[in-house]
Write a structure and sequence with these properties.
Largest sheet: 5 strands, mixed
InterPro entries: Thioredoxin, Thioredoxin-like_sf, Thioredoxin_CS, Thioredoxin_domain
Keywords: Disulfide bond, Electron transport, Redox-active center, Transport
Protein name: Thioredoxin
Pfam family, one: Thioredoxin
Helix content: 25-40%
Radius of gyration: 12 Å
Number of helices: 4
Strand order of the largest sheet: 1-3-2-4-5
Family: Belongs to the thioredoxin family.
Number of strands: 5
């Protein structure tokens, strides 16, 4: 599922794109078959554009990248996980309005 302004990462690129990133990275663990994931597309596109100075947003398709999904114990979609310094620092599960999501992530950004 393509999101404007959001890079797709894979099992092969996760370490370099997410774990080695300088600032915080919001990873959208998603799947094409997931209706709540589709609800998050415009929210994540807005956040990627509006918060670009303090947050990188990327997307990972769990069906095509099972290693990363398993490594972080992601069982429900969408799971949104913030990584900082190579470690997950916040995880939220389920679709959310943009304002609520930003409030929930504010202290880790």
């Amino acid at each position: 599922m393509r999101i404007t302004g959001v890079a797709e990462v894979t099992d092969a690129t996760f370490a370099s794109e997410v774990l080695a990133a300088d600032g915080p990275v919001l990873v959208d663990f998603t799947a094409d078959w997931c209706p709540p994931c589709r609800q998050m597309v415009p929210v994540l596109a807005d956040i990627a554009r509006e918060e670009a100075d303090r947050l990188t947003v990327v997307s990972l398709d769990v069906d095509r990248n099972p290693e990363t999904q398993a490594r972080y114990g992601v069982l429900s979609m969408p799971t949104l996980m913030v990584f900082r310094g190579g470690e997950p620092v916040r995880s939220v599960v389920g679709a959310r309005a943009k304002a609520r999501l930003l409030r929930e992530l504010d202290d880790v950004l």
